[in-house]
Every structure is written in structure tokens, then in C-alpha cells.
Amino acid sequence: MQVRLQAKNTFTLVMVIGFIYLAYLIFFQAGDGFPEIDINLRDIASYAVLAVEMGGRAVKKIHEESGLHISKKGLTDEGKDELLTKADLVSNYLILDVLQRFPKLKIVSEEKDSKVTEQEASRYRDDQYSIWLSVKDILNKMPERRLQLSDVQVYVDPLDATQEYTENLTQYVTVMTCVTHGDEPIFGAIYRPFFDETIFGINGWGVMSSSGSKLTPVDLDKTIKTVVVSRSHAGKVESFAKSAFGQETQVEPAGGSGYKTLRLVNGTAEVYVHTTAIKKWDTCAGDAILRAMGGSMLDLEGNPLKYGQNEPVLNQKGLLASVRIPYTYFKKVQPFVKDSKL
Ligand SMILES: *[C@@H]1O[C@H](CO)[C@@H](O)[C@H](O)[C@H]1NC(C)=O
Ligand SMILES: *[C@@H]1O[C@H](CO)[C@@H](O)[C@H](O)[C@H]1NC(C)=O
User: Fold this and answer.
1) What's the pLDDT tens digit per position in 161-214?
2) What is the DSSP letter of 171?
């Protein structure tokens, strides 16, 4: 009897302490008065894929619509601006709308004054359920991984290769989302709206395309000796790339960071070099995919890009990317980086 009573008291005491501890955790520990939330990377990655496809379909529809009004001469500057602004805002709206299913998820995207109304955006909203069905089997193959929501951020690029988009160079256009954990990009999705294809990768697992194929790096001897660079500063990079990688190297100007990364993924280019400042939502998804293949993006000082919450969104140190041995490539460019004071 005595023993039982004591056991009961002990139990009650433990329970009370347990409750007090929980209350303490809830009200004092977590930053803004919320308990720490666990999420599954697979869930968030699934929504990130859904989001890029939603945004990307709108990007394509808006382009088609404007195409109807374009004369043979193409768009005026004003027309270009209008097209771009609309596609960018609507895509951003639809992407955030999907991601908002995760309350308190931190999203890094260009500041958009929400000029888009639900009514306007809904004209371009595709049926979520059918998109979902088309990718669900592949998404189910993704590994489960529990993360603390407070360590996670999602980078959003609602329209990459904006200039090319207005010039009807649609092959360069992509829409991207990327999940980071601490400093590291751990999941990236790149959607090509005009080809209806998504490539996505999870660090430590691998890279897949929405058509269901698993993508692995192309053998080095079958990889095309091309360095892809931005269309706006191709001239400057050309001599530096040839000095670093050999005179036989082809330097190809191409639009969009997402597109250039995809060229590395399918082995139609070996290295991607960028010598000026670049925003991290332009690189995050590609970086995650390259890391999932065994490569990565480095800045031109040789450091992996960091995506953590206290890191600046603008990377001012340039970029060197490949699906393999990025440090080996970095060693080759290093002397020239110094010379050209990039
Ligand atoms: C854009 O390019 C596509 C295919 O390359 C073509 O069919 C279309 O007519 C072009 N549109 C404009 C406005 O130039
Ligand atoms: C490689 O990827 C790029 C970008 O997605 C695409 O334009 C190109 O057609 C692909 N080439 C091959 C041979 O798969």
C-alpha cells in the first residue's frame, strides 16, 4: 500500500514536471512563442515541385497570350516590361500560394508588391490536382527526412532568364524552387515551362526528371568541352575560360542560370562560369541539383555558396559550377581570377 502510494505520487510528480517543461518549451524556448515544428523534407519538396509547375504554366500562358498581340517586329520595350512584370508577378503569386500550406515557412523571393489579385492570378492557375497526379509517383520515391522548420528556407525564382523570355528565346526560361537547411541547399527543382519538364534533386539521394528517369553525371570523356556563360558578359569570360581550360574549349553564351545548370546535368557543357554578382535564388536550385550529383557551385574564391538565414542574398564573388570535382576546376581558374581582378 505504502509503496503503491509512493509510486502514484512519483508518477503524478513526473507528469506535473513534464507539463511544466512542455509549457516552458512552448512559451519560452522557441523564438516567437511557437513550439519547434518538425516537417518532412519529402512533403515540402513535393509542394515545391507543384509550385514551380503552377508558376511555370502561368509563365507559358502569359507568353502565348502576348504572342497573339505581337506584330512581326516583336515587342516594344514597354510591351516587354509589361509582359515580364505580369509573368513574374503571377508566377510568384501562384508559387507562394502553394507554399503557404506550410505556415511559418521562411521564403526568400524578390520583394513583390502584391499588385496581383487572386482574381487575376486565378485565370492562369492550372488544375493543381492534375499536376499533382502527373508527378505523384515520382515524388513518392523521394526519401523521407525530418527537419526542423526553423532551420529551413525556400528560395523562389518565379521566372529565370527574364530578358530571354521577352525576346522569345523560351528554351532558356525556367522556374525554380529550392529548399535549404542551414547553409546548404538540400533540394532543388527546375521547371522548363516551354518543355513541360522538371528536373529535381535531393542532396544525398540523386537527381530525377519528371519523365521518371534518374539522371547521373555523363562520363567526363563524353561530356562536351563547353563552358557556358551569361549572354551579357560572354566576351569578358571567353579569354579567361580558354586560358583556364584550354584553347580548344568552346565558350557558349546562354541565358538563365537554371538553363546553364541543366546543360551541366546532361553533359552538354562541362563548366558554368559567372564572373559578376548573382542572386542566390538564381543559383540555389541548380546548386542543390549539382550537389545531389556530386558537384556543386563555388564562388571564384573557391568557397561553396552559403544559403543560411544570415547570409546575404546577393553573391558578389562570381560562380564556378560543375557536376563533379569543382575544386579541380577551381584550381584551373584560380590564377586567372586573380589576374582579371574579378
Ligand atoms: C516565338 O518562337 C516560337 C518558336 O520558336 C514561334 O513559333 C513563335 O511564332 C515566336 N513568337 C514570336 C512572337 O516571335
Ligand atoms: C540538355 O539540356 C538542355 C537544357 O535543359 C536542353 O536544352 C538540351 O536539349 C539537352 N540536350 C540533350 C542532348 O539532352
Assistant:
1) 999 999 899 999 999 999 999 999 999 999 999 999 999 999 999 999 998 899
2) G
- Residue nearest ligand 1's atom 10 by CA: 168
Q: Report how far ligand 1's centroid is from the alpha carbon of 168 (Å).
A: 6
Are 226 and 249 a contacting pair, CB within 8 Å? yes
Q: Domain boundaries in the chain?
A: 38-214, 220-340
| 8 Å CB contact between 227 and 245 | yes
Contacts with 128 (C-beta within 8 Å, 6 or more apart), sequence order: 50, 54, 98
Alpha helical stretches, state H, 220-311:
234-245, 257-265, 280-293
Is the full-model pTM beyond 0.85?
yes
What is the whole-number distance in angstroms between the Cα of residue 270 and the centre of ligand 2? 13
Encode 303-332: b = buried (16+ Cβ within 10 Å), e = exposed: ebbbbeeeeeeebebbbbbbbbebeebbeb
Q: What are phi and psi of 306, to 5 degrees?
A: -115, 135
Considering only CA atoms, give the Rg of the chain.
23
Share of the chain residues as helix, strand and coil, in percent rounded to the nearest 5? 50, 20, 30
CATH class, 220-340 region: alpha beta
Output the known binding site for Mg(2+): 110, 157, 159-160, 282
**In which element (H, E) is residue 1 found?**
none
CATH of the domain spanning 38-214? 3.30.540.10
